[in-house]
Amino acid sequence: MEEDDADYEDYYNTSEDPEMEVPQEEDPEQFDFECLATEDVERLFNECVEGVCAALPVKPSLAKLLLHTHAWNAKEITVLYTAGASKLLVDSRIKPANPPQTEAQSVRGCKSVSCSVCLLYYIGEHFRALACGHYFCKECWSTHFEIQINQGITTMMECMGQGCSLLVPEDFVLSILNKAILREKYQKFSFSDYVKSHPELRFCPGTNCSTIVLAKEPQSKRVTCKYCKVVFCFKCGSDYHAPTDCDTIKKWLTKCADDSETANYISANTKDCPKCSICIEKNGGCNHMQCYSCKFDFCWMCLLDWNSHGSEYYECSRYKENPNIANESAHAQAREALKKYLFYFERWENHARSLRLEEQTHQKIIDRINEKVMASEGTWIDWQYLRNAASLLAKCRYTLQYTYPFAYYMETGPRKALFEYQQAQLEAEIENLSWKIERAETTDRGELENQMDVAEKRRTTLLKDFLAV
Questions:
Q1: Catalytic residue among 115, 225, 286, 396
Q2: Is 286 a catalytic residue?
Q3: What Enzyme Commission number(s) does the record list for this chain (predicted)?
């Protein structure tokens, strides 16, 4: 460990360190949210619309349009309306900047009018127009709506008039559509648009799950659906990715997808023992490997002797930048960039693989507990600590996996040095926990529970210092 890293030892030296204690109320992943059904959200929308209608002289359909185009911020709408009602309606594409010169009554009162779309003649009562005054027959409006709806466009449907961008309100659409299936599809798509435009709402990404999550603070925090149990980030809707922020994980996943073929060769499941060179397959989640032939203990990632690895974990998880790379050729810089990416990708992919392997271990633990209970060797409660340990291991390793995209995009400096130190400490405790769980039959319960406590404190402290919301 380098001299600068020694400064962190007082902060993270023992499991009894008071700095490691993280009170429940200071849990960095604490997030208040509520799982709602469709009817609950519809009620919420209606209350918002009623509130705007009570404060301003606008129809419900226009109030809903205003709310949709202003992220459901009723206070902002009221302020803007008070400052200039006409400007608000024009900016929201509800009212035209230049009012139509043709009076509505003059068109509606005509006995025969030609539709500029289908060129057929109808009585004036058969025509409809928005505030822009672009009149078309109801059949043409209906066809226009049907085409838009089948393309998934509802709340952003515009007037058919050439160059006109006025939005079509809900009541206007429903007064024209007479096909029940189209009306149902329109309302379904509109509802989806309203949810997506509301900053405090997020659809659960679970398969066939209709739950909608409500959170007063739209942060990139973990949400677990009450019904389908899917875990996701509230802010972006993707898999939960702490401590990496939403934009960074998006960049990382895109890069991994683009460079997947390049990285595949380095993600093999087998490596040679560094002592006897026999081929070894990784069949567990723990990175503490023991050669089945020569019994040499080594680290799966860096292949160094495990006995001395405890003091060198920081070196194993940290990428060593070339300080003179800026002065190298373009080819050398490209090679260095690939080397850096592969370093982080290998560790990212390794922990993802370990999670899958440890899930198998978790199932073996459950089966083993069943055997012991059936043999009257204790009750389910007596053996529950093993299941808790396996669950905590998955939780910690999941966080550790997402520290690597975070580190990859971090700029070199004191903050990155601190992060890499914490990352290495967490990784060391996770591997110790994994090793003990895979040998649960011979592991002392008190020792295992103590290791669980230390690992979770490492994880929580890292998130407390680096979780971006």
A1: 286
A2: yes
A3: 2.3.2.31
